[in-house]
Amino acid sequence: MGDVTVVTGGTGFVGAAVVRHLVAGGHHVRVLVRPRSDRRLLGDLPIEIADGDITEPISLRRCLRDCRRLFHVAALYSLWARDRRQFYEVNVEGTRRVLAAAAEAGVSRVVYTSTVGALGIPSDGSPGTEETPVSLADMAGDYKRSKFLAEEVARESARQGLPVVIVNPSTPIGPGDIKPTPTGQMVVDFLRGKMWAYLDTGLNLVDVDDVAAGHLLAAERGIVGERYILGGRNLTLREIFEALGRIAGIRPPRIKVSAGLILPIAWLSERIADHLTGRPPAVPMDAVRMARKRMFFDGGKAVRQLGMPQSPVEDALARAVRWFQANGYAPAP
Predict the structure, then answer these.
(1) Which is it for strands 233-236 and 202-207: parallel, antiparallel or unpaired?
(2) Which pLDDT band holds residue 78 (cuts at 50, 70, 90)?
(3) Quick one: CA torsion of 84, 86, 89, 95, rounded to 10 degrees?
(4) What is the pLDDT of residue 45?
(5) pLDDT band at residue 219, thresholds of 50, 70 and 90?
(6) CATH architecture of 4-173+206-232+296-311
(7) Which residues pair with 203 in a beta bridge?
(8) What is the 3-state secondary structure (H, E, C) of the chain?
(9) Scanning 22, 155, 264, 273, which has its CA 20 to 30 A from the CA of 29?
């Protein structure tokens, strides 16, 4: 057995942050990369590239040769896809193939990246924890359903003896969101002056570098079969826009609208995307469905048991704003 650390999804927002932290820690890192992936975030990092795909078992076996630790970060993270089956092929079956290949390779530790979207939210409005009851029926949309099912695959693998630790990032924010993620797109739209109103909802924001640190800490200190919320600070959407307004010098929206009012707009937006443009809708239905509940979570377990850092989310928002402006996603200040 070698001493290679493999990362899937290393060209993405969270995955690239994990890769940077591993490299900074002196690890020999191998990143599974699809041939046409945007590799900008990997830059000139001293890493090994393995061409392949999590849906291709042969490339997985090749990539995991001599692997000691695996960070399975790859996922289809979107609130819309023209072919909804992609969510399940990538997130569920892809995870099944990755973990099967890891078991075959004898990997000594696996960190699987889930999401707080797969966790329960208490009906009384209090923050969700790793133990809040939840079922597949509670999942809004194909992304959440597929990640819930993928986490079940990871938990079953742990029960069968694979040393898997599960991490559930909340809403990462910071520089390098090249796609961008749904949250990053919300920040970009705000900076472009497209946010004329806000929904009465909320998110748990966390610095993407804290999330990366949480991954490494989970590999070192996490208990097999356990899951850890990698979260930061709970903020209402209005509070997030107010913070962005202070950072960017833009007046935040003052009009509050209900999810019910936005649903017809989202429905029309998705019909146009599905049947005409083939491009992501301006207002995904799943985003509106999710906004009916405040996505507030308690990340105390990861702080207490893993030692996960808690950097100020305002600093992460400021770094994200500067990065989006510097890279042409939003107007320069």
Answers:
(1) antiparallel
(2) confident
(3) -110
(4) 96
(5) very high
(6) 3-Layer(aba) Sandwich (3.40)
(7) 235, 295
(8) CCCEEEEECCCCHHHHHHHHHHHHCCCEEEEEECCCCCCHHHCCCCCEEEECCCCCHHHHHHHCCCEEEEEECCCCCCCCCCCCHHHHHHHHHHHHHHHHHHHHHCCCEEEEECCHHHCCCCCCCCCECCCCCCCHHHCCCHHHHHHHHHHHHHHHHHHCCCCEEEEEECEEECCCCCCCCHHHHHHHHHHCCCCCEEECCEEEEEEHHHHHHHHHHHHHHCCCCCEEEECCEEEEHHHHHHHHHHHHCCCCCCEEECHHHHHHHHHHHHHHHHHHHCCCCCCCHHHHHHCCCCECECCHHHHHHHCCCCCCHHHHHHHHHHHHHHCCCCCCC
(9) 155
Pick the range with the lowest mean pLDDT from 92-96, 137-141, 183-187: 137-141
Pair of tokens at residue 308: 């996960």
What is the CA 313 to chain-centroid distance, rounded? 16
Q: How far apart are CA 199 and CA 203, in angstroms?
A: 11
Tell me what the mean pLDDT of segment 71-96 comes to.
88
Tokens 């998705």 locate to 270
| Domain range annotation of the chain | 4-173+206-232+296-311
Which of 230-244, 246-260, 282-296 has maximum average pLDDT? Answer: 230-244
Residues in the chain: 333
Q: What is the pLDDT of residue 255?
A: 85
- What is the spatial distance between Cα 79 and Cα 32, in angstroms, rounded to a whole number? 24
Count Cβ atoms below 10 Å from residue 86 Cβ, excluding itself.
Answer: 14
Mean predicted confidence (pLDDT) in 3-11: 96
Q: Is the pLDDT of residue 68 over 80?
A: yes
What's the one-letter identity of residue 51? D
**pLDDT confidence band for 125 (50 / 70 / 90):** confident
> Among residues of the chain, what percentage have pLDDT more than 90?
76
